[in-house]
What we know:
A six-stranded mixed β-sheet has the order 1-5-4-7-3-8, with helices on both faces. It has a two-stranded antiparallel ribbon with strand order 2-6. A hairpin with a 5-residue loop joins strand 4 and strand 5 (about 140). By secondary structure, the protein is of the alpha/beta class. The protein folds into two domains: about 25-60, no CATH class; about 75-235, Peptidoglycan recognition protein-like (Lysozyme-like, 3-Layer(aba) Sandwich), CATH 3.40.80.10. The chain contains seven helices and eight strands, in the order H-H-H-E-E-E-H-E-E-E-H-E-H-E-H. It is globular. It is about 30% helix and about 10% strand. The protein binds zinc ion.
Amino acid sequence: MGNNGSTRGARKPSGKSSGSSSRKKPADxxxxxALLIGGGTVAAAGTAAVLAxxxxxxxxxQVPGVEKPRKPGELDYPGATWVAASEANWRRxxxxxxxxxxxxxxxxxxxxxxxxxxxxxxxxxxxxTHYIVGQDGRVVQMIRELDVAYQAGNRAYNERAxxxxxxxxxxxxxxxxxxxYASSARLTASICARHGIPVDREHIxxxxxxxxxxxTDPGPHWDWDRYMELVRRAATAPPGPSPTPSAKA
Length: 249
Ligand SMILES: [Zn+2]
């Protein structure tokens, strides 16, 4: 989708392969499908025999006793509301044990909050981020941080990053509201704190900065200086929806 610059691709490409950037990795599809068909450790292990070594590494969580416990609707960020993305738009993983998490990737949706949620629920979309932040500051989480979201069009970056979409269009500076910046900065500070990610521009990047991407978001109007300052502030003085429940006293 070349010109719309986001994971979601406001306009769906007609017919042919979509181009959604995160798509060029049949291996993901193969392993996911194998697991679904297998439906269990034994079958998955059988399937694994015919998969490349690379794939074996991704099946290890199927071994009994090593998978992290998951509860439906569980959040990584208490300030978010849970809405599940389609399982076609992410890959089950066990980060940071299988892949270290050391990047936050900033996106702009090229559409409304509701339409972003909708496409992430659409299995045909083949892309999604972990979070979406609205212009009013609301946050939904759609993929667990321990899982790999197909967000960046770059497998290695997908595996190492947590992704945040922001409601708006890259060519409309007014879409990037104060409430959105503030809320997103708290979220990013929380992600950085939980994963030990340095709060700097090497580790907090735009989709446009991912190697090999043809996407341009978050676009020229995203105010990085302002955003990074807000993240730093939130990181040093965790405000409102912080992961620590002991915020009284
Ligand atoms: Zn993007």
